[in-house]
From TrEMBL:
Cofactor: FAD
Name of the featured protein: Acyl-CoA/acyl-ACP dehydrogenase
Cleavable signal peptide: none
Pfam family, one: Acyl-CoA_dh_N
Top-level taxon of the source organism: Bacteria
Length: 372
């Protein structure tokens, strides 16, 4: 019987061809060619979970997760652009009104790149300290502030900017090329070097008030947790991908490299590394699949399951990528090797979308409320 080819299969094949063996050269250049980003966007790869009625591919969280893991196994920079784009689209879908969804989602689903800006020099883990101001001025709002480490900002046409609005918080969609916006690339990031991280200065940027998503003056926690829910899920699946890539490199090397008269895999201490990597990859995949299942079934458990997925997967990815470098030893000890890149990229995953410590605080809070 002929096997059915799914949309997920087609998207993976497309991503495979698009990335080819270019991830290393993109990492070295610190940028992904515009044409690649455009093609990925036009195919719907960047935010494949956007519903079909809004011009997206309507993938489930589980399928989008597998797609994200596939791209993450090959190129964490392109995967980072997917995370930002998906997070922007999810923010519009959840916080925007009907008119805003109809206006923005088809553009994002069609490939107009977006970045999401919370972090500031004085507001990293503590986003209640955001100082960016969004102030009403007739039928416009004026946005003033400074955002740091904004993934994808160097590629973006749209910036979803979070800031203070009266006594509350708001998210506003700002054209990246509007007067008063300055995007300054972060020099030499440790990893995900082609993900277009930038400092974004907003100097009295005037945008129509209609671009404030779902009205102004909402709770910071609600706005931020809505956007981060998607970001955490996406990073978690990306980390499962990093582990898959590391496991493949390690398995190939351990079978083919001979020392002391037998393949490395024949030495039990090396075999243990392989076993640990497999366990890490399987653990990450399962915890991500559970979180996506909660997302797809609209389970109230989705919030804690997503934090758990991000926490578990990023820790395993950072440890697993280090193990991969250990097994490949000198063969993996050059910047251009995929395991070396994975090692640098994975470390950053323990910092973003809620650092390990912030995830631990959230998980402890959850445990204390549920299990006490
Ligand atoms: C590669 C990369 C991509 C990023 N992309 C984006 C993006 O697209 N958009 C965006 O808005 N931001 C982005 N960021 C910023 C990111 O969200 C922040 O770096 C992150 O929230 C941590 O903030 P910080 O770096 O200021 O560290 P800090 O908040 O200063 O924390 C420093 C250390 O203290 C710990 N810590 C802080 N508070 C506590 C506490 N209460 N209890 C225990 N430990 C604590 C932290 O876990 C960390 O280990 C990105 C960052 C990186 C590195």
């Amino acid at each position: 019987m002929a096997e059915t080819v799914t949309e997920l299969d087609r998207l993976r094949a497309f991503a495979d061809e698009l990335i080819g063996d270019s991830a290393d050269s993109w990492d070295r250049a610190g940028t992904i060619p515009e044409e690649i980003v455009r093609k990925a966007g036009a195919r719907g790869l960047m935010c494949a979970q956007v519903p079909e009625r809004h011009g997206g591919l309507g993938l489930s969280s589980a399928d989008n997760g597998e797609l994200t893991a596939f791209v993450g196994s090959r190129c964490s920079s392109l995967r980072s652009l997917m995370t930002s784009q998906g997070m922007a689209a999810w923010t519009v879908q959840r916080l925007g009104d009907r008119k805003q969804r109809a206006a923005l989602l088809p553009r994002l689903a069609g490939g107009e790149q977006a970045a999401v800006a919370f972090s500031e020099p004085g507001a990293g883990s503590d986003l209640s300290a955001m100082a960016t101001r969004i102030e009403p001025d007739g039928d416009r709002v004026v946005v003033t502030g400074e955002k740091v480490w904004i993934t994808a900002a160097c590629y973006a046409e749209h910036l979803v900017v979070f800031g203070r609005y009266g006594d509350g918080t708001a998210a506003v969609v700002v054209p990246a090329h509007a007067e008063g916006v300055r995007v300054e690339r972060v020099p030499e990031p440790l990893g995900c070097r082609a993900a277009g991280h930038a400092r974004v200065r907003l100097d009295g940027v005037r945008v129509p008030a209609a671009e404030v998503l779902g009205g102004a003056g909402q709770s910071t926690e609600l706005l931020v947790s809505t956007a981060l829910a998607y970001g955490r899920m996406s990073v978690a699946w990306g980390c499962a991908g990093i582990l898959r890539g590391a496991l493949a490199s390690v398995s190939r090397h351990a079978r083919t490299r001979t020392q002391f008269g037998k393949p490395l895999a024949g030495h039990q201490l090396v075999a243990r590394h392989v076993a640990e990597l497999l366990a890490a990859e399987q653990t990450a995949t399962r915890v991500c699949a559970h979180a996506s299942h909660c997302w797809d079934t609209r389970s109230p458990e989705v919030v804690s399951a997503t934090v758990l997925a991000k926490y578990v997967s990023s820790r395993h990815a950072a440890a697993g990528a280090a193990t991969a470098v250990q097994v490949l030893a000198s063969a993996g000890a050059q910047e251009s090797h995929p395991v070396a890149r994975a090692y640098r990229d994975a470390k950053l995953m323990e910092i973003i979308e809620g650092s390990n410590e912030i995830c631990e605080l959230l998980l402890a809070e959850h445990a204390l409320s549920v299990h006490a």
